[in-house]
Amino acid sequence: MPNFTSSPRTLKRNRSERIFRAICQSAIALTALFLVFLISNLAINAIPSLTQYVVRLSLVVDPAKVDATQIAAGDFQAIVRTAIAAEFPDVTAKPEKKKLVKLFSTSIAENLQRQVTADPSLIGKTITVEGPLAADADSFLKGQQMSVSALGENSDFEARALAKLKEAGKLTREFSWSLLTNGDSRSPEKAGLRGAFMGSLFTIAITLLVALPLGVAAALYLEEFARQSRLRDLIEVNINNLAAVPSIIFGLLGLAVFVNKFGLPRSSPLVGGLVLALLVLPTIIIASRAALRSVPPSIREAALGVGASHQQSVFHHVLPLAVPGILTGTILGVARALGETAPLLMIGMVAFIADVPTRITDAATALPVQVYLWSALPEAAFRSRTSVAILALLIVLFVFNALAIWLRNRFERRW
Amino acid sequence: MSFKTVFTPAIPAIIAANAPKIVAQDVNVYYGEKSAIKELSITIPDKAVSAFIGPSGCGKSTFLRSINRMNDTIPSCRVTGKIAFDGMDIYDRAVDVVELRARIGMVFQKPNPFPKSIFENVAYGVRIHGLAKDKVDLERIVTESLQRASLWDEVKDRLAHAGTGLSGGQQQRLCIARAIAVNPEVILMDEPCSALDPIATARIEELISDLKQNFCIVIVTHSMQQAARVSDLTAFFHLGTLVEVGDTDAVFTNPQEKRTQDYITGRFG
Amino acid sequence: MTTTSLNLTKKYRLRHYTEPVVFSLMLGASFFAVLTTLGIVLSVASESYRFFSAVPLQSFLFGTEWAPSSPIPSFGFVPLIVGTLLITIIALAVAAPIGILSAVYMAEYATPRARAFAKPLLELLAGIPTVVLGFFAALTVAPFIRAMGAQVGLTIASESALAAGLVMGMMIVPLISSLSDDVINAVPQAMRDGSYAMGATQSETIRKVVLPAAFPGIVSAFILAISRAIGETMIVVMAAGLAPNLSINPLAAVTTVTVQINAMLVGDQEFDSAKTLSAFALGLTLFVLTLILNVIALRVVRQYKEHYA
Ligand SMILES: Nc1ncnc2c1ncn2[C@@H]1O[C@H](COP(=O)(O)OP(=O)(O)OP(=O)(O)O)[C@@H](O)[C@H]1O
Ligand SMILES: [Mg+2]
Asked: Is C262 in the A-facing interface, judged by CB distances under 8 Å?
């Protein structure tokens, strides 16, 4: 009887088979590991910023410092300083007092001002005002003494002060809504993503408004109307090559043409949106063409057969059937644009802008640019906020991609 | 031995004369839920050519591929029953398919040379199974295999050229050379000539007749003439069952089954 | 279409006027791609022209010192391209094996279920904005490498080519793996069957038949990956640094073409100073470089597809 059991050589070959297979698996595993590490690292970094110590100070709105007729000119910082001093009656030395004030965010005074502006009758009364601790004090309480902290080794004094506040029940740890509702700021505890969100929103809206019609029209021409010609080849080669041009080059184009030649406002979502529209145009054209191509010829023939013109057959029958595919491709393209940073740096959407933009011509940043800006700041608290900004960006991208996948599964027909 | 579905008045002469090489018993092959081969039993003689004929989709390739366990590469495919090679069940758990396939070579319908030189194509199996002692030995094996596949004279000056650059007929002979280089005992051929012109076909048929001195050859073909010309044993498949098996002369001159007769006279299929 | 024997509706006649308009609109839209390319070439080239009228082309291309802000500025391209290539090589050294092996796994070994897990995983990685990877490179990977180096007594710059290259490598893994996955899948099954029928194991089949057959496609995947790495901006801006060291030491800080384009345009731009204009000269070089790589890659892919058509 023949023997088909493995010979020593085959055993060796089978072993190397298993090893090779394991190596291939570990390549994927390594990628997974990288992703897990990346995301968990971001999440861990982000956690401290998600909550914030909020202090409640009861203070007298001193009429000597605020005039009811000129509220904006009032010295609210001084009122808060007085209130802080009142919390610590045993501290008298001036440098120590200064140290105390540094524990509180200046946004307490801003909140106070807002309250008084809304209701001038508060002047002269004793009220409670809320506001965050300064970022350093906040991180100190969260137990992460970080390198660039203003609270150095000799922070006993501050530690005692904070402990006292905590014992008195004046501190509560709350979700940092300010991260979502505030614009950018130099002080970490005040810095929020609202400006970046709005900037991204405006930018992407422009991108979509420009790129979608252009992309679909171009795809319709190339897929449905163009005859095989030199012109069509030229356009096709162009699109394929544009899809692989580094994004920073599009930024240079935007700077030279939109900003310098056309005089559109630098740093504005308008220019940013136009640049990103050019960037994603090839993607949208390629996706739309694929969607149009997947509509079977029988549909076109049926329409032509009942006497529709070529254009009617396309616009009434083919295009509607291709819409889900086109939208899926567009959403993916827009998601890519949303994460782009480099071209926006070129056109100057990279400045510190505290105001939340309200028009497409206002100077603005965008979410990924905010990540870049914050990551370059020395304060440790900003590092954590950067992680939050990244997570916010990733969540937005995730939503976009989920939407695209849903759309694809829901509407895509197999012919 | 049981021949459940086959009407065999007498044991075919070629099976009586030659040693049995492959004996299949009650073989069923399924693709997922779908059954492609039903309760098939057949004995394939050594040092002879056996031909499988039958209409398209009747399971010839499926059965052929279960003889060297190529079906293992199709995830949905499942084989039950017993196929014995020299008495050893090839679906036994102790069997290493790598060893098995080294003994049961296969030639496919479309020539599929590797994207390598002619020399490397033939040397491929020799190298992976470690059959050559040294370089000289390897060259000898490659030369001999090409000679036995009657391709040597046409390619001896361009062994380093790409195997894909040969003509279709040459490529198919290259694949035969590649298969015989590892010195198998059985060669399975699935419609080896269907992609070739009549002249190339004639050369391959000649080659098959030569090779049967040393090998057990199983060939699937759609050409009745080819089966009649080259084979000793003919098996007619229909809808996944073996309808009739017998000496080629007998099957073609005096088929026992109506379906066989209809098929070979061209009334269906 | 001009027969009038039929009773034509008003709408039908209107169509005669609207359809040509719609047609020209669509034609115009498709011209935007050409316009964009023209815009890039003309605008970037014209600013570059102004740059090269101040700085000779030769001293740009072959100069070994990049000091645009010094009192006597010098604009030598060599340190930038060396830095770029150094990071690209590191990236490719990471991405090539991981990318190809993942592709092999996906195309050859993975069960449909494993594939349904692995493919979205790679797509997820591909979808992560590079600014995020840059942050990770600068604030997590670089300090880690530095600490590791300190353990074994190596001094590693806080902004090292290695950190940027490693993370950039992970960035291009999905690109290489998805392109390679495609070309491996395009290798005809008959080729594999031929090998299995010879008694080859799966890994022998992959290594000796499938990968050699897919080789041209894999090469073009590499070329596209190189082009991506050269043009990548955020990772290097955040992790590689600004120091124009002419060095091939992966532990040193280097700078790249894209980093310098960014650096030249940050802050006040003066469109008559060589410093600002040099960004466009760098951009033009980058554009030409990546264009050449893309054209080569597309050509290789096309030939490969024709081969197995
Ligand atoms: N990989 C597969 N998956 C599912 N079903 C298959 C597969 N391969 C073959 N089949 C089915 O099994 C049956 C037998 O197919 P097989 O290829 O063995 O026929 P054949 O006799 O070789 O036909 P032909 O003469 O056309 O080559 C057919 O119904 C076919 O559809
Ligand atoms: Mg068949």
From this structure: yes
The reply to whether residue B116 touches residue C196, judged by beta carbons under 8 angstroms, is no
According to the 3-state scheme, what is the secondary structure of chain C?
CCCCCCCCCHHHHHHHHHHHHHHHHHHHHHHHHHHHHHHHHHHHHHHHHHHHHHCCHHHHHHCCCEECCCCCCEECCHHHHHHHHHHHHHHHHHHHHHHHHHHHHHHHHCCHHHHHHHHHHHHHHHHCCHHHHHHHHHHHHHHHHHHHHHHCCCCCCCCCHHHHHHHHHHHHHHHHHHHHHHHHHHCCHHHHHHHHHCCCCHHHHHHHHHHHHHHHHHHHHHHHHHHHHHHCCHHHHHHCCCCCCCCCCCCCCCCCHHHHHHHHHCCCCCCCCHHHHHHHHHHHHHHHHHHHHHHHHHHHHHHHHHHCC
Q: Where are the domains of chain A?
A: 56-174, 194-411
Atom of ligand 1 nearest to the CA of B76: 3
Q: How far is CA C273 from CA A59, A133, B47, B89, C264, in A?
A: 56, 46, 88, 84, 10
Asked if the C-beta of C181 comes within 8 angstroms of chain A's C-beta atoms, the answer is no
Note whether B129 contacts A: Cβ–Cβ < 8 A.
Answer: yes
Whether B66 lines ligand 1, by a CB cut-off of 6 Å, is: no
B129 has a chain C CB within 8 A of its CB: yes
For ligand 2, the distance from its centroid to the CA atom of residue A87, given in whole angstroms, is 92
Q: How many pairs of residues across A and B have Cβ atoms under 8 Å apart?
A: 36
State the DSSP H helix or E strand holding residue A105, giving kind and residue range, or none if neither: none
pLDDT tens readout for residues B62-92: 999 999 999 998 989 999 999 999 999 999 9
- Does C191 contact B115 at a Cβ distance shorter than 8 Å? yes
Q: Does residue C27 sit at the B interface (CB-CB below 8 Å)?
A: no
Summarize the confidence of residues A51-65 as an average pLDDT.
Answer: 85
Nearest to B60 by CA among B248, B198, B234, B265: B234
Interchain proximity A2–B85, CB inside 8 Å: yes
Ordered by start, the domain boundaries in chain C are: 3-54, 66-308
Superfamily of C66-308 according to CATH: MetI-like (1.10.3720.10)
Q: Domain count of chain B?
A: 1
Q: Which of A6, A19, A23, A31 has the highest number of chain C CBs within 10 A, making it the mutation to test binding with C?
A: A31
pLDDT at residue number C308: 62
Which ligand has an atom closest to residue B241 CA? 1
8-state DSSP, A70: B
Q: Nearest residue of C to residue B111 by CA position?
A: C190
Domain-located, residue B91? yes
Q: What percent helix, strand, coil does chain A show, rounded to 5? A: 65, 5, 25
Strand pairing class (A51-60; B216-220):
unpaired
CATH classification at residue B116: 3.40.50.300
- Ligand positioned closest to the Cα atom of B60: 1
Q: What is the pLDDT of residues C235-249, one digit of tens each?
A: 999 998 888 888 888
What architecture is domain A194-411?
A: Orthogonal Bundle (1.10)
Residue that is written with structure tokens 């204009």 in the block: C277
Q: What is the DSSP letter of A245?
A: S
Q: Which chains touch A (3 or more CB pairs under 8 A)?
A: B, C
Q: Is residue B1 part of a domain?
A: no
> Most C CBs within 10 Å: which of B72, B106, B112, as the mutation test of the C interface?
B112
pLDDT at B48: 94
Check pLDDT > 60 for residue B49: yes
Cβ of A16 under 8 Å from any chain B Cβ? no
* Residue B32 CA, closest ligand 1 atom number: 4
Domain, as residue range, for B49 = 13-264
Minimal Cβ distance to B88: which of A2, A9, A14:
A2
Instruction: Please tell me the predicted confidence (pLDDT) of residue A146.
Output: 45
Residue minimizing CA distance to atom 12 of ligand 1: B36
